[in-house]
Specification:
The chain is an alpha/beta fold and 228 residues long. It is built from seven helices and seven strands. The protein is globular.
Length: 228
Amino acid sequence: MKSQSFFGRIRALAVVACVCAAVCVPVVPAATGQTTQTTRETSTPYTGDLSHFDYPERGKKLQVNRVMDLLGIKAGSSVADIGAGGGWFTMLAANRVGPSGTVYAEDINPEAMDYIRNRAQHEHLGNVREVLGKPDNAELPASSVDAVLLLKSYHEVAEPVTLLRNLRASLRNNARVGIIDRNGNGADHGINKDVVIKEAGEAGYKLVGTYDFVKPDKVDYFLVFQPE
């Protein structure tokens, strides 16, 4: 009887142990088919002298006319300059698209909006529209643009995938999105080209062009995307 009682107690303890193990093991959530986006570092948006980027020979070094050609920017086009800053590219694009076109100068810095507004008035460009955006949304009108450029500003975008996803609603048929930047880790005023391509893919864009002729302007790549 003692022997049976002993083994009986062992079996009872084993059962209790199994129950405890089942209760105490951390529950791992089942896969839902959704992926969690890894947050990466970004650079602090520039808030200094907005005329800083208007340096001599910039257009030549960047081959900005070739950039606009590859984005399909012509007379009558509607263009968005995202992260417009002081409006250097905005003014060039506004001159190219002419009175029948429109350039949306977007930035999250209210001071940039005032600066660009005054600059457009001074240069007699009535086709420039200032847009105060958000870190995850450029706040552009629906189906409003034929071409977009993020010039040395993508590494400052806090929510890049969400921004690009929200941007799609503003694109017209066959619209192109250009990103010019330098390689880096996100926090050093640059972001690696492969990261940009990956994030754009997550947002539903396909890469249609890769160029490096912009390197004389101290950047590494010019990427062109279209919605898939």
